[in-house]
Amino acid sequence: xxxxxxxxxxxxxxxxxxxxxxxxxxxxxxxxxxxxxxxxxxxxxxxxxxxxxxxxxxxxxxxxxxxxxxxxxxxxxxxxxxxxxxxxxxxxxxxxxxxxxxxxxxxxxxxxxxxxxxxxxxxxxxxxxxxxxxxxxxxxxxxxxxxxxxxxxxxxxxxxxxxxxxxxxxxxxxxxxxxxxxxxxxxxxxxxxxxxxxxxxxxxxxxxxxxxxxxxxxxxxxxxxxxxxxxxxxxxxxxxxxxxxxxxxxxxxxxxxxxxxxxxxxxxxxxxxxxxxxxxxxxxxxxxxxxxxxxxxxxxxxxxxxxxxxxxxxxxxxxxxxxxxxxxxxxxxxxxxxxxxxxxxxxxxxxxxxxxxxxxxxxxxxxxxxxxxxxx
Length: 376
Ligand code: GDP
Ligand code: MN
Description:
- The structure is a single chain.
- This protein is of the alpha+beta class.
- It has three domains: 21-91, Dna Ligase, domain 1 (2-Layer Sandwich); 98-217, ATP-grasp fold, B domain (D-amino Acid Aminotransferase, Chain A, domain 1, 2-Layer Sandwich), CATH 3.30.470; 227-375, 3-Layer(aba) Sandwich (Rossmann fold), CATH 3.40.50.261.
- 36% of the residues lie in helices and 25% in strands.
- The strands form five sheets. Strands 7, 8, 9, 10, 11 and 12 form a six-stranded antiparallel β-sheet that branches. Strands 1-6-2-3 form a four-stranded antiparallel β-sheet, with helices on one face. Strands 14-16-17-18 form a four-stranded parallel β-sheet, sandwiched between helices.
- Strand 16, helix 10 and strand 17 form a beta-alpha-beta unit.
- Helix 5 (149-159) packs across helix 6 (165-178), helix 9 packs across helix 10 and helix 10 runs parallel beside helix 11.
- The longest helix has 14 residues, at 165-178.
- The protein is elongated and about 75 Å long.
- The model has no long low-confidence stretch (mean pLDDT 94).
């Protein structure tokens, strides 16, 4: 689970990391009052769980409380990369003399955490890493040892961070360990003209599997980050949005994962993972199709079902009835195999939907869906 910036800010504060004075609200009228309390001049910041808010116009300086109200009104309701802004954080502005980057991320391949540090903070680290990889230091962490002052000094030296940042690095590691986080990121970590280090923007991803150890946390920010994923979760679907163009629906996580691989092998990119599970009823099919189709990036949809306990004719009936409620706007390629496959195929053939076609093999279906998506 990703936290909002203001939640990350509050956590950092609890661990003794210096953060700007700030308050959140969903009302522009209250934004004015908050600005007054904070001293008049404020930074108004969209609270959405995605980066690059600054570039998208979601971070703006307001000179006085009246301007804060206007700016908050502008930012509230704004769409940033598919996220609607429901709250803004108003923060006391910080004077910037230098912007740094620091994070701890789980390196799953290596089975340990990695510190990433750079003297080029402020912009997205992926950009820096792409254009000037030598400006981004990556330091493996031994989790038994953690980030001691000595380790912090090593990270700071590697990334070109000021010596004072060692204290921040040690505290940030405490946030990660004690809060069971998988990622903590500060970008930018700012040096003020007085030499103080302030965490100006924070991102924290908590490990959902450790949530039971933090029962006090309350539920206001639980659940998926992506709006489509949230809509799917509300319908009880296991859906994960990816960034390709072929929508993928299948029964069973293993089958869906191999389908993603096969689609990728055909030169297209899967748009999502969606496991409709064992009971592919008409309702589940309709819900699944409507979630996948509501992603505008989807150019074709591949349904890959291996009938087991749920027979293919039941799945085919489900698809036919789903097509009564969901308006199919992009081609659908269906591959049915296993239990009652012949009957299932006959049902779809009889339905003769102009946008539905069938394939007999998984490879054939993936090739066809990939072709339809890339030709579109
Ligand atoms: P992001 O675009 O989502 O990463 O949002 P940030 O909170 O990182 O803000 C983007 C940029 O706005 C920062 O890198 C700063 O350059 C600038 N910014 C944000 N807050 C302040 C502030 O208090 N003072 C100044 N001078 N600049 C700020
Ligand atoms: Mn940032």
